[in-house]
Structures are given as C-alpha cells and as structure tokens.
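Input record, target 12 of the design panel.
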C-alpha cells in the first residue's frame, strides 16, 4: 500500500514537462530582447502589460492541453478534420511564418552569445545546428523534453543580475500606474510583448507534446498545474528583463541602442561589471535560444505533418513512415542556420517578429476557441464564468492584434 502511494506521489513527474518546456521556449532570444528594449524605452511602465498577459497565456495553453489529451490529435490535424484542408493550410501557413521568424532570432541569439566571448558564428551556429538536429534522433519524446527543460533552465541565471542591480520598489510601483498609452511607440512595444508572450507555435507544440507523451484524461489536472507553473516562470523571466534594463539603462536616460546580444551585456556592465554581465546575459539568451529552436522546429514539423496527414512522432525511429517528419525537422534548423550566417540586426528583427505574432493572433486564437467548443465532449469544455472570461480575453487580444495593423504599417 505504501509503495502504491509512493508511486502516485511522484506520478506528476511523468506528466509535467510540456508546459514547462514550451514556456521556457516562450522566453526565447527575441522575447528577451523585446523585454530589454521595453525596459530601456519605457522603464517600469512595461511591468503592468507583462502581468496582465499571465492569465491569457495560461488560458490559451490550457485549452491546447485539453484538446490534445481528450482527442489524442494535434492542432493541425483537428483543424483539417473539422474545418477542411483549406483552413488547415492557412493555419499551417500562420505557423510557418511564426516559426521561421522565431528560428532566425534563435540562431542569431546563439551567434550573439558566441561573439560575446570571441567565438565566431561560423563555429557556434554549425555546432548548435548539429546538436539540435541530433536531439530529435535519440528515440523518445520524454528524453527530448528533459534535455529541453534542462537547457532552458539556464535562463533563470538572470535572477542574479536583478539581485545585483537592486531596483527601486517605489519606482516600480509608480510604473504600475503610469501607462503612456497615447504614445504610438509604447503601443507598438506593447504589441511586441503580446506577440512575444502568445505565439502560434506554442499552441501547436503543447498540443502535439501531450499527444506524443500519451497523456490520458486523468492527467488533465496535473497538466494544468504544469502549464500554470510554466506560465509564472516565463512571465517572471520577462519581468526580470524589463525591470533590470528599466533600473539601469532606462533609468539613466541613456540613448543606448540595443542592436545585438553584445549591446545587452554592454548596457548592464557599468552596473554589475563586465564579466558578470556577459555570463548572465549569455546564459539567459543561450538557454532561451536553444530550447526555443528545439520547440519551434518541433511545433512547425508537427503542424505541417499533421496537415499533410503524415506520421509524426519522436517516439518512432527514422523509417520510411517517419522520413517526412524527420526531414522537415532537420531542414527547419539547416535553413534557419544558413540564413543567419548572413548579417541581421537582432533587436529590429526580434521586435518585428513579435509584432507579427500579435497580428497573427486573431487566426490562432480564433481556431483555438472554435475547436474547444466544437471538438471536445461537454464534460471537458469550458463552463460558466471561466468560459466567458477566457472568451472575452481572447477576443480582446484578437481585436488588439487587428488594431495593431494600422500603427505597425505606419511605423514600418
């Protein structure tokens, strides 16, 4: 009897993972750059948007958990079966655009970290590509997930930087009630942060992950806890970056331009020292970039192969049946790496990619809400106050995404 209780006690370890890894990937190079840029330009006034995004991020990903566990099907597969091939390809196209943009920023992040320590991108990018491709061939989704969570945990190193900086609590409180919403550039960065937090590939990944992990309906509660903890971690990391750069470069009224990972370290070095700045920025960006590259490529591969109705699972070795899955996954990394071996400006691309994600949200969240209402049995659908809260918040974000088309077009 005691042995059975012990097994049940640690059963959550087998269920947790998809929420943690997807949320760690959410704070990728582009997101961290966007958060840092937000802190530099608008200081502590960017804290409130990050806090307000916590419930909508959790609610969106929680829907994917139920959809995947109850139906045992991926997001693209459900769209194809319930809305037709045309809508499935539109959804896959949305995913592809988001994933390509994300992969570029991940590899640029890897290159930037290497250059912090004098290592050429011609060395770091090929090594990262080989490692990321190789991980998929180790024969198990659970192993891939464990590796991803361990790598992504390096992002937590930046907590040390905030402790060293000692931001002003009174200034942070003032920033919570000072919202310069009339400024177009502030609204633009808010849109970038929305796109940085809620990304199309996250929905495809987590739904595909719970399917590949073979979770059943008895796992829903623990899978929700996994998602909630992951949500707090990812938004905590975003807040830490906003606060750190608001308290340093932003608070000094500097006109510093953040155009590379090196610029992030340089901006902090006068406040915490050159070496600590390089190490902490490097660990955070590298951890976020690598885990995000892994997750984004898998999300894109799952989404496309689901629409094509090809076999798609990390639990099956390379064979004729799975050749398409592994080929698309490998090509995603190789193409991203090749493109990034050209010169790109990280900050401009990172912010632009996150704003693009915000513009794609009406499509992504729209399908998510429709699938939740149409596909799930009644006992697994949202009900009452929670249902209306989720629906209203999703609609607000969708409207915001459509509203941003005008301001973004003017700024570009």
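The sequence produced for target 12 reads:
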């Amino acid at each position: 009897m005691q042995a059975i209780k012990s097994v049940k006690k640690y059963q959550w370890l087998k269920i947790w993972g998809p929420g943690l890894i997807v949320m760690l990937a959410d704070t990728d190079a582009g997101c961290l750059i966007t958060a840092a840029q937000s802190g530099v330009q608008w200081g502590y006034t960017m804290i409130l948007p990050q806090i307000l995004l916590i419930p909508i991020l959790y609610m969106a990903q929680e829907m994917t958990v139920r959809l995947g566990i109850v139906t045992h099907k991926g997001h693209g597969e459900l769209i194809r079966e319930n809305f037709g091939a045309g809508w499935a390809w539109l959804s896959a196209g949305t995913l592809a655009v988001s994933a390509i943009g994300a992969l570029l920023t991940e590899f640029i992040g890897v290159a930037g970290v290497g250059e912090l320590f004098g290592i050429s991108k011609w060395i770091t990018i090929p090594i990262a590509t080989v490692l990321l491709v190789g991980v998929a061939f180790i024969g198990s989704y659970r192993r891939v997930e464990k590796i991803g969570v361990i790598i992504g945990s390096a992002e937590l190193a930046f907590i040390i930087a905030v402790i060293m900086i000692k931001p002003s609590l009174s200034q942070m409180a003032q920033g919570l009630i000072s919202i310069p919403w009339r400024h177009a550039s502030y609204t633009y960065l808010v849109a970038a942060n929305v796109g940085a937090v809620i990304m199309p590939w996250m929905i495809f990944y987590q739904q595909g992950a719970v399917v590949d992990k073979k979770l059943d309906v008895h796992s829903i509660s623990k899978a929700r806890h996994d998602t909630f903890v992951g949500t707090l971690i990812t938004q905590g990391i975003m807040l830490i970056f906003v606060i750190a750069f608001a308290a340093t470069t932003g608070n000094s009224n500097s006109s510093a331009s953040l155009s590379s990972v090196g610029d992030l370290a340089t901006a902090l070095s006068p406040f915490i020292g050159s070496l600590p700045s390089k190490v902490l920025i490097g660990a955070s960006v590298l951890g976020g970039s690598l885990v995000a590259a892994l997750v984004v490529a898998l999300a894109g591969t799952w989404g496309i192969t689901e629409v094509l109705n090809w076999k798609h699972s990390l639990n099956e070795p390379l064979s004729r049946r799975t050749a398409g899955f592994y080929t698309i996954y490998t090509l995603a990394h190789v193409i991203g790496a090749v493109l990034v071996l050209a010169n790109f400006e990280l900050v401009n691309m990172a912010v632009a990619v996150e704003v693009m994600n915000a513009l794609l949200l009406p499509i992504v969240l729209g399908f998510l809400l429709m699938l939740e209402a149409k596909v799930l049995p009644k006992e697994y659908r949202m009900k009452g106050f929670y249902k209306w809260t989720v629906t209203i918040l999703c609609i607000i974000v969708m409207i915001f995404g459509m509203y941003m088309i005008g301001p973004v077009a003017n700024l570009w």
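The chain has a mean pLDDT of 84.
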